[in-house]
Design the sequence.
């Protein structure tokens, strides 16, 4: 993928009068900037679901996906640890029924990334400083602990590494309880590339990658929200 692909996704959303990308579109945009995301397939028919399950392999995460639905968990549209094709088909019917009325309703068939450590990476636009990158503890702890750091884009590698050391929970990135130390270079590249998106794609108002799960040492964005101006 390329930057042109990212621009195409944004143009399509704008032409449809949308201010958010679907999760599937958001992940395509991120992949265009070499940000690691989950392997996933978007399906709209039961027949296609069976093929997607076989291609990605169980266990899976299934998510209801529509451009107007930004927060899927709040609407009970996420199912994890799906272990068989039969289970996936039943969940597909359930999710599609829950999204009745959404013209672009689909189900995202996604690899289930295993990891106990969750991080958050984001992009905001400050009136004074412009595009700023955020890093911190993710998952349910993002709002509770607010353990985050910020830097103005563009970022160099040393900026990204400093951000990781500024959060109170930085020890979560170290080798702990049998888990390897996080790949700090891979995390730094994610932060740098999110900053690049903020500088190169003016139409992007906000990015929220939460969580970014450490699968062993490797960071992977398993959920993504991109808000447009």
Sequence:
């Amino acid at each position: 993928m390329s930057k042109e692909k990212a621009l195409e996704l944004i143009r399509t959303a704008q032409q449809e009068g949308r201010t958010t990308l679907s999760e599937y579109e958001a992940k395509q945009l991120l992949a265009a900037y070499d940000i690691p995301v989950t392997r996933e397939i978007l399906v709209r028919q039961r027949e296609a679901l069976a093929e997607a399950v076989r291609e990605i392999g169980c266990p899976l995460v299934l998510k209801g996906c529509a451009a107007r639905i930004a927060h899927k968990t709040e609407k009970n549209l996420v199912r994890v640890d799906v272990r068989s094709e039969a289970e996936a088909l039943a969940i597909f019917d359930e999710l599609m029924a829950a999204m009745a009325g959404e013209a672009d309703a689909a189900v995202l068939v996604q690899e289930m990334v295993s990891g106990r450590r969750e991080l958050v990476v984001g992009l905001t636009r400050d009136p004074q400083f412009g595009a700023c990158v955020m890093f911190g503890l993710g998952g349910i702890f993002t709002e509770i602990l607010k353990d985050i750091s910020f830097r103005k884009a563009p970022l160099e590698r040393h900026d990204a590494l400093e951000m990781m050391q500024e959060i109170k929970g930085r020890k979560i990135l170290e080798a702990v309880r049998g888990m390897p130390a996080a790949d700090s270079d891979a995390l730094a590249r994610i932060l740098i590339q999110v900053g690049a998106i903020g500088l190169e794609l003016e139409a992007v108002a906000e990015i929220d990658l939460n969580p970014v799960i450490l699968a062993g040492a490797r960071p992977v964005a398993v959920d993504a929200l991109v808000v447009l101006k």
Q: What stands out?
A: The longest strand covers residues 204-215. Residues 33 and 193 are 6 Å apart (CA to CA).
